[in-house]
Amino acid sequence: MRLLIYLILGYLIYRVVRTVVKQASQQKVRKTDAPPLQADDVMIQDPLCGIYFARRDGVALTHEGRTLYFCSESCKEKFLAKYTRTD
Ligand SMILES: [Zn+2]
Fold first, then answer.
1. Ligand 1 center to residue 42 CA distance, Å?
2. Residue 2, Cα to own-chain centre: how many angstroms?
3. For 75, which of 5, 27, 34, 70 could close a Cys bridge (C-beta 3.0–4.6 Å)?
4. What is the pLDDT of residues 14-65, one digit of tens each?
5. 63 C-alpha to center of ligand 1: Å?
């Protein structure tokens, strides 16, 4: 009878430990799951005005198969007006 109590106790402790470990590993996964910021922190140059800025702050434009980034929407529009024909 005593053995059974120890078995139940051991099982309960096992369950608690398992739950704690599971939660800890889930938190770890969540932390590393965050989007990699480094790639977006790359400094790039505006092809129109020449200003340097972080890519994540830029305005993206696909032009002739290349992705260009501008410091602002107005630079993008000026670039488009300059390099795309409106026949
Ligand atoms: Zn600009």
1. 16
2. 54
3. 70
4. 998 898 888 887 776 666 665 555 566 899 999 999 999 999 999 999 999 9
5. 16
